[in-house]
Every structure is written in structure tokens, then in C-alpha cells.
Specification:
The protein has helices at about 5-15, 25-30, 65-75, 95-100, 110-125, 160-165; strands at about 50-55, 60-65, 85, 105-110, 130-135, 145-155, 165-175, 185-190, 195-200. The chain is α/β, with parallel strands linked by helices. It has a single domain, classed as Vaccinia Virus protein VP39 (Rossmann fold), CATH 3.40.50. Helix 4 links the parallel strand 3 (about 85) and strand 4. Helix 1 runs antiparallel to helix 2 (about 25-30), helix 1 crosses helix 3 (about 65-75) and helix 2 (about 25-30) packs across helix 4. The longest helix is centred in the first third of the chain and has 13 residues, at about 5-15.
Length: about 220
């Protein structure tokens, strides 16, 4: 299979057609071999226009569909000088894209096996500006904070306040908030002690574990 041709077709047919115009984002998608981040038996499916399961476990993790991923990265308005925390890095595809856009990337993953795969794959591609760390996704990475951008790679029901505290003044957090067709991209902007929100586009992406609202006890 000609993966380079498939990569170009993905960008032209799946990403450019959904109002993604950022040169840095388009260049990253053209540069990163998506097939390197999917299970061996699914490499032929690497460039299809859908989410790709990274394991066979029920409720497991996914490689996000190219179009919403590209739109979210563009929504974050990442500069070359930015430091980025990616939450839910899976096998490292998002981190690889971010490494082409930003100066430094911390890829947080809660699954040890996925984190190990991400480390190996990113190293094989020479992406030395990415640091893969393991831990609870909802806790972020306070030991390496603050960050210019926090990118949550999956849908969440809520954004914990502790994550917003890991942003620099003027920093942005981008996430898909909500599940299913009612979910929407949101940008949270840190301004001193305050955080403002900006609504983006409607989208539906697979959920990340650990970000559900606490259930209230009803008498």
C-alpha cells in the first residue's frame, strides 16, 4: 500500500474540505505517518475517515478520526514556541502531530502498554521533543506545568479545575465537552485567576476515561 499517497489523499479529501486552513496543522498531517500508530493488523485502515480502535477491549481507546482531530488542533491556535500537554496520547499520534507544530510536548497516558508503544514509535521517528509520561488523565501533569496549551485527546463530560490551573497566563485548553452528537469543541482561556470559555464546532469523538461528573446523591 502506498501510505504516502493515502496520507495526501486524507489531507485533501478529509481535512482541507472541513475548513482546516492552518499551514502548520496541514503540514503536520502530511508529515506524520499515521500507519505507524495503529495496530499492525489495521495498518491498511490507517487513513480511513473514522476512529480506529487501538485495542479490542470493550470501551477501549481509539485513534481519533482525522477531520475532528485537525479541526481541534487548529482551534487551539498553537504557536511554534508553545509547550503543550496532550492528555490521552494513546499510541502517540497526536503527540507526533503536536511535535511538528509546537516546541515541546508532554504526552500523558494512563495505559502503561499504550504509553510504552508511544515511546517506542515516537523515538523511531526521531521526535525527541516529546516526553511521554504515565498517570491519571484527569490529574494532568502538574510536575511539568505550566503549559501554553493543554489538548484533551477525546471527549469529556467535564474539565477538572485542576487542569486549568496547569495553564500559563494566556494559556488555552481545548477539549470536546459532552458525549455523542450533542458534544461540542470548547476553548478555555486562562487570564490571570480567571478562565473564559469560547464555543467551537459541534463534533462527536470517542470518550476518554476519568472525566465524568460526580454523581449527586438524591434523597
Amino acid at each position: 500500500m502506498d501510505f504516502q499517497a493515502a496520507r495526501t489523499k486524507m489531507v485533501d479529501n478529509q481535512i482541507r474540505t472541513t475548513d482546516v486552513t492552518s499551514h502548520s496543522v496541514l503540514s503536520a498531517f502530511l508529515s506524520v505517518p499515521r500507519e505507524a500508530f495503529v495496530p499492525e493488523r489495521k495498518k491498511a485502515l490507517a487513513y480511513i475517515d473514522t476512529d480506529i480502535a487501538l485495542s479490542d477491549a470493550e470501551g477501549g481507546r481509539y485513534l481519533m478520526e482525522p477531520s475532528p482531530l485537525a479541526k481541534l488542533l487548529q482551534f487551539a491556535e498553537i504557536a511554534k514556541s508553545d509547550s503543550v500537554l496532550e492528555i490521552g496520547s494513546g499510541t502517540g499520534y497526536g503527540a507526533a502531530l503536536l511535535a511538528h507544530i509546537a516546541t515541546q510536548v508532554v504526552a500523558l497516558e494512563s495505559d502503561d502498554a499504550l504509553a510504552a508503544t508511544a515511546k517506542d514509535t515516537l523515538a523511531s521517528l526521531g521526535l525527541s521533543t516529546v516526553t511521554v509520561v504515565t498517570g491519571p488523565l484527569e490529574a494532568g501533569c502538574p510536575k511539568l506545568a505550566p503549559f501554553d496549551v493543554i489538548f484533551i485527546h477525546g471527549a469529556v463530560e467535564t474539565v477538572p479545575p485542576g487542569l486549568l490551573d496547569q495553564l500559563k497566563d494566556g494559556g488555552r485548553l481545548v477539549a470536546v465537552v459532552g458525549y455523542g452528537n450533542a458534544s461540542r469543541a470548547k476553548l478555555f482561556l486562562r487570564e490571570g485567576a480567571r478562565t473564559s470559555e469560547r464555543l467551537g464546532f459541534n463534533t462527536a469523538v470517542k470518550a476518554l476515561p476519568g472525566f465524568r461528573l460526580a454523581k449527586e446523591f438524591v434523597f
